[in-house]
TrEMBL record:
It comes from the Bacteria. This is ABC transporter ATP-binding protein. CDD domains: ABC_NrtD_SsuB_transporters. Residues 4-241 form the ABC transporter domain. SMART domains: AAA. PANTHER family: SPERMIDINE/PUTRESCINE IMPORT ATP-BINDING PROTEIN POTA, SPERMIDINE_PUTRESCINE IMPORT ATP-BINDING PROTEIN POTA. The lineage of its organism: Bacteria, Pseudomonadati, Pseudomonadota, Alphaproteobacteria, Hyphomicrobiales. Keywords: ATP-binding, Nucleotide-binding, Transport.
Length: 263
């Protein structure tokens, strides 16, 4: 069970308000997609959920507790690029996180523990279709394969929350489509909440159980930094049965059309 609450969250850099009055309650096992214009604060929101940034006002609660002040292993992240370590093999990349967690000084496990971890990592690599590439280095992989590796690297830590920042943005359409299927399946198989940022509206509505748009409701041409962005549209989460029903599909289509015309 993982619930996330953003309670009147603001983010300011000096005099500049980037985000203001962000209120959001996320149920367990949600797939939230954040959309919005460039520079509006989507990544900043994601970085606050990762504790790479702190709200300047308001609070973020995970399972009712204030979010940890530093990044923790139960919150994984995949960026558009460069999430993997170039000097480690595919298998080494997947084993790295658990090894550092179990052995913070050496960053290495030995004997039976290492073998057990290797087995676990290979199972995950098989799941993302990279088992036969386990001994290669990331630069020997295509962009899509590197993103599958980044997913495996995040998933081995069994995150409660997986944050995805435009993870498919650099991929060609065919690879993107196969990544959509994979990430949706991985989300269904694992007990985790996903929060994803994308610029692609069709991707947002295809993958998300809930889609929010972030935008600036007020602007002051004399002082563009005076007002921040907030949640401007919110398509509520639906239970899986309702989600699969025809009625919901029709509503979703309508909502999508409204959103497209609003942007
Ligand atoms: N550390 C920082 N110091 C000052 N300003 C920052 C900092 N980090 C982000 N910003 C500003 O906050 C605003 C929001 O940035 P952010 O990257 O969150 O936007 P975004 O919606 O993810 O944009 P994009 O879609 O282009 O990736 C930007 O104007 C950016 O310049």
């Amino acid at each position: 069970m993982t619930t996330i609450v953003l309670d009147d969250v603001w983010k300011e850099y000096d005099d500049r308000i980037v985000l203001e009055r962000v209120n959001l309650t996320l149920d367990d096992h949600e797939f939230l997609v954040i959309i919005g214009p460039s520079g509006v604060g989507k990544t900043t929101l994601l970085r606050m959920l990762l504790s790479q940034e702190r709200p300047t006002r308001g609070r973020i609660l995970i399972d009712g507790e204030p979010i940890a002040p530093e990044p923790t292993h139960d919150r994984g992240v995949v960026f558009q690029r460069y999430s993997v370590f170039p000097h480690l093999t595919v298998l080494g990349n997947v084993m790295r996180g658990p090894q550092w967690l179990a052995s913070p000084i050496l960053g290495r496990l030995f004997g039976a523990k290492r073998r057990a971890l290797e087995e676990q990592a290979m199972t995950l690599l098989t799941r993302v279709g990279l088992a036969e590439h386990a001994s290669k280095y990331p630069q020997q992989l295509s962009g899509g394969m590197q993103q599958r590796l980044a997913l495996a690297q995040a998933l081995i830590m069994k995150p409660k929350v997986l944050l995805l920042d435009e993870p498919f943005g650099a991929l060609d359409p065919g690879t993107r489509a196969s990544m959509h299927t994979l990430v949706r399946e991985l989300w269904e198989e694992n007990e985790m909440t996903i929060v994803m940022v994308t610029h692609d509206l069709s991707e947002a509505f295809l993958l998300g159980t809930r889609v929010i748009a972030v935008d600036r409701p007020r602007t002051d041409p004399q002082a563009p930094e005076r007002f921040g962005a907030t949640i401007s549209s919110d398509f509520e989460a639906k239970s899986r049965i309702v989600r699969q029903s025809r009625r919901f599909e029709a509503e979703r289509q309508n909502a999508r059309l409204q959103l497209i015309s609003a942007h």
